[in-house]
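Q: What would this chain look like folded?
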Amino acid sequence: MKNIKIKSRNLTLYYGNKMALNEISLDIPERKVTAFIGPSGCGKSTFLRTLNRMNDLIPSVKITGDVVIDGVNIYDKQIDVVNLRKQIGMVFQKSNPFAKSIYDNVAYGPKINGIHDKKQLDEIVESSLHQAAIWDEVKDRLHDSALGLSGGQQQRLCIARTLAVNPDIILMDEPASALDPISTSKIEELIFQLKDDYTIVIVTHNMQQAARVSNYTAFFYLGELIEYGKTRKIFTNPEKKQTEDYITGRFG
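A: My prediction, written as structure tokens:
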């Protein structure tokens, strides 16, 4: 595997006394889409959140092992977590636009980062909405409330908001699970386009989606990484019987 962007080594996570991840080691390549699949509660979203230290916000969490991004261990004590989360955008399962205008949703991150020049903000907002494939739908209503958008549009707006701060990596936690089929296919097309410029990691419970959008797939079960490899191989010729049983619907 060429150009590794993220390496996890022996990553173990406890919520209190309950082990949620057991010694996860895997390499995530740059500018590809990597999907995490597995039944509910198997650790895939927990692992996703270790990649931008979102689990740090949970009081009872204990984490051992390393996550190295571009050669830097992000669990090092010297790491500036705020800067880390600028580099790593996150799109959640439920779209969460701010109760502000469409424009202000996208301009929010750049403003926090010190950009206040109107012309520059206009350019960032337009290019982010273009990249998120929603510009044509909203360009005449930028100053309307984002809460007036449909669910699928809100999710693409949240992706635009993520892109506006120019991240390197985009984490997506079931980004289409609450959407109708047409909105889902728009999000999938968008993921496909974005991978030319970003490293994307997506958690999905929809195996067809993983097969359609990802280059690599990791199958998690009960906090363990069971199998990881190229998506085509995982879906057509998995090495582990457990993987095959899950993909063919025998459990999960």
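The CA atoms of residues 39 and 252 lie 5 Å apart.
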